Amino acid sequence: MSNYKNKSGYYGNKNGDISGSTEDNGGNDNVFIGRNAVLELLKSGREIDKLYVQKGEREGSITLIVARAAESRIPVVEVDKHRLDKMSAGGVHQGVAAIASETAYVSVEDILAIAAERGEKPFIVICDSINDPHNLGAIIRTAECAGVHGVIIPKRRAVSVNGAAAKASAGAVFHMAVARVSNLSSAMRTLRDNNVWIYALESDGTPYYKSDFDCACAFVLGGENSGVTRLVRDNSDFVISVPMYGKINSLNVSNAGAVVLFEAARQRTQK
Length: 271
Description:
- This protein is an alpha/beta fold.
- The protein folds into 2 domains: 13-100, CATH 3.30.1330.30; 108-269, SPOUT methyltransferase, trefoil knot domain (Alpha/beta knot, 3-Layer(aba) Sandwich).
- Helices cover 34% and strands 22% of the residues.
- Helix 5 (133-146) links the parallel strand 7 and strand 8 (150-154).
- Helix 1 (35-44) runs parallel beside helix 2 and helix 5 packs parallel to helix 9.
- The two termini are 22 Å apart.
């Protein structure tokens, strides 16, 4: 999707507090690393405080990143590799990091509004207790590529949209509406009230290819260890699965999600 603008601005709270301590805190949600992630951050229009570039790095996409930062009048600071290593908390920064405003999450209603504005049936992903930021980022990347209107994540017992998730998503998080809710069951009720069918992806469900996804639909992807929680499963309309045919009986959650989301995208777009 193009930049989604809510009341606070383009995925950034213009009043976001960026203290000096955030510059060296790789675990902070406002620190974004990696060339693809930072480039997409710049494209998104989100407010950026500073861009940090490793001394001597001026080849490839770094040149484009620095040029875009200059166009937007974002301060560019050259630092040594040790400083970037510290900022990224050991992550692979590829010679660049950015400090941005806090993520401005949207509401479930905002996601439904995006679908309505496009004249499309809602197409939504619900992440139930995803704790690995790399999985969350991979899911959001897949969702964005498949044409999903928004992703719903819980506030508790789940990872937020942080720098690691942004890097894993190759910057897709900056083009995806994400709602962070206090109660998934309540969010699911809102979806059902708007005639959205909810499909939980589990190992014991009906094979996904037997389902009709040419409708307003949301797909629940469960946590890495426990899968979809019982309450969320009970509140879903259907339980579907990706059949396994080899010796390994499970897929990574982001891979399983990709299989189902692109089947849904195929059904929704075929004439």
